[in-house]
Design goal:
Its EC number is 3.4.22.49. This protein is an alpha/beta fold. It has helices spanning about 5-20, 45-65, 115-120, 130-150, 155-185, 200-215, 230-240, 245-260, 275-290, 295-300, 330-340, 370-380, 395-405, 420-425, 455-460, 475-490, 505-510; strands spanning about 80-90, 95-100, 105-115, 195, 290, 300-305, 325-330, 350-355, 360, 385-390, 405-410, 435, 445, 450-455, 465-470, 525-530, 535. Helices cover about 40% and strands about 15% of the residues.
């Protein structure tokens, strides 16, 4: 049921693209009923024909989900290195549903009570959703206020006070994401990203089976119980980093107990000696698991589907996920759209974009002097790159840049909403890969019971393959430093190390966060929506 409102809007927009403009505007409620065809013929050339065929298939994809909302459709043709996971809040708001989607098979659904670790430790201070949201909102609010007054800070004492406040907020953001990982995900965080390779899976399974049978199954039933350890427990164990906390392994033990109970195994229950089990699991980790090499890790990618209550958190910088390729998508339907654009390709290396057709908007308001100084020479030095600098673009110029280029770079305030309305973006026949480096360009507005709205979803509806945008306000020097490092890592800018191979946009962003002085307050703000595209240049 994820992104129902967005799906309806998507269908209405696609009908407008295929049959001509309808009465679509920013305040009307989109209808799910098929519109009467009012076909406007497209030019009869190969490009337009392919574009029309693509949007027809997109419409069929979303209509299938709309007509059969209760039927799960597994993803097909998902590259083996890619993982898809959904995080949803339970109706009573005290548990997370973690859904791991698989290639052409049914998903794994885990219900994770948010306060389970507090209960085990007997702690009274619970790390609830409301607690986390309140802390996030307070951090972002204080950060935004400090960012807005940055240009007015003068004098040594004022600067010291300003930086002290910023560093304190950076520390609070770091502790927030650590608490989210430790309290909410715990021993199940490995389902988001696998940390290790397994030289001998059969031997590992046998070792875990022996430990859990010895400590979790009632002594009088061990010889007669014929059940085996659930594969999901083995997967959870192998996915945890070897350096994980003892509490994560204790959480895994409880997960194993739950799996045994589901299969009606005679478990001991509260009498389990968790400390002893954890010690033996540590030994198995050291003996039988091998951390993924940097090369193997760089090929992995995680697509995150976040419900409306969770999308504001910077999940990408959780300790277990930080430094790894991650992007957000509104729903499985939108992922299918992007996979459809790939055609029959099943290798992540084939998701490439020709960056010789690039448009840019640099300092349109005229007050981002340091940003213009950093990027002006580089942007102007590319043959075939067309841009606007130091002046406001017209709506038509922005539309043309998005519709006719392969890459759009925006270095200005916000997400360029002051230059182009969201409806104009949504109705584009095609949309370039876009990077919006302005403050809060990637923030989604809460709409109560309905799906959130905002600039990122306008680009997703337009068919944008990949969007980089900021969840909250950032300071220009830190985000400029991050952007330049990302350009070098993706190959758009000559790298500092010529021997280094370019990486995809999501991996580059993950690695570039560390160049910020405030690695969480500024470094965690940019996120990727869409696909992990790579850039190439035609000879």
């Amino acid at each position: 049921a994820s992104s129902i409102t967005l799906r309806r809007e998507m269908l209405d927009i696609v009908r407008a693209k295929l049959h001509g403009p309808t009465s679509v505007d920013d305040i009307s409620w989109p209808s799910i009923a098929p519109a009467t065809p009012r076909s406007i013929p497209l030019r009869d050339d190969a490009g337009c024909t392919l574009t029309r065929q693509y949007w027809v298939k997109v419409q069929q994809n979303h209509m299938l989900d709309a007509d059969h909302p209760g039927i799960y459709r597994p993803i097909k043709n998902l590259p083996t290195e890619w993982r898809v996971a959904s995080l949803h809040l339970s109706q009573d708001r005290d548990s997370l549903f973690l859904v791991q989607h698989h290639n052409a098979t049914d998903p794994l659904v885990l219900k994770l009570p948010m306060n389970r670790q507090n209960r085990r430790e007997g702690e009274e201070d619970l790390f609830t959703l409301s607690t986390a949201l309140q802390e996030l909102q307070n951090i972002v609010s204080c950060s935004n206020a400090a960012t807005q007054r940055a240009r007015h800070v003068s004098g040594h004492d004022e600067k010291v006070t300003w930086w002290t406040e910023r560093k304190e907020l950076d520390g609070r953001m770091r502790r927030l994401v650590e608490n989210i990982e430790n309290h909410w995900l715990g021993g199940c965080k490995g389902f988001l990203r696998c940390s290790n390779s397994i030289p001998d899976r059969d031997a590992l399974g046998a070792a875990l089976e022996k430990v859990f049978r010895e400590h979790l199954i009632c002594s009088q039933d061990r010889t007669t119980f014929s059940g085996t350890l659930d594969d999901h427990v083995i997967n959870a164990f192998t996915s945890l980093p070897i350096s994980c906390r003892d509490e994560d392994l204790e959480d895994l033990v409880q997960f194993a107990v739950d799996c045994y109970q589901i299969n009606e195994a005679p478990v001991i229950g509260d009498e389990v000696d968790a400390d002893q089990v954890v010690c033996q699991l540590r030994e198995i980790q050291k003996e039988m698991l091998k951390p993924h090499s940097k090369e193997a890790s760089s090929k992995q990618h995680l697509f995150l589907i976040l419900d409306k209550n969770l999308q504001g958190f910077p999940w990408e910088v959780l300790p277990h996920l930080r430094g790894h390729s991650i992007s957000r998508i509104p729903s499985l339907s939108f992922l299918r759209d992007r996979l459809l654009a790939l055609g029959e390709l099943t290798s992540p290396s084939n998701m490439t974009v020709d960056a010789t057709r690039t448009a840019y908007i640099l300092n349109p308001s005229g007050d981002l002097i340091s940003t213009q100084t950093m990027f002006e020479t580089w942007l102007g030095g590319h043959q075939g790159w067309n841009g606007i600098k130091n002046r406001s673009p017209s709506t038509e110029e922005v539309k043309q840049g998005l519709a006719t280029s392969n890459l759009m770079l925006y270095f200005g305030h916000g997400g360029a909403e002051q230059y182009i309305r969201s409806i104009n973006i949504k109705q584009l026949p095609r949309c370039a890969v876009t990077m919006l480096w302005g403050c809060s360009s990637g923030m989604l507005q809460d709409q109560g019971d309905f799906d959130p709205s905002g600039t990122p979803y306008a680009y997703m509806i337009a068919g944008c393959p990949s969007l980089v945008a900021n969840l909250w306000d950032v300071t220009d020097k830190d985000i400029d430093r991050l952007a330049m490092d990302l350009f070098k890592k993706t190959g758009l800018h000559p790298p500092d190390d010529p021997s280094r191979e370019p990486v995809n946009i999501s991996q580059a962003l993950a690695e570039s966060r560390s160049v910020c002085q405030l690695r969480y307050l500024n470094g965690a703000a940019p996120v990727v929506y869409g696909m992990p595209v790579q850039f190439t240049s035609s000879p």
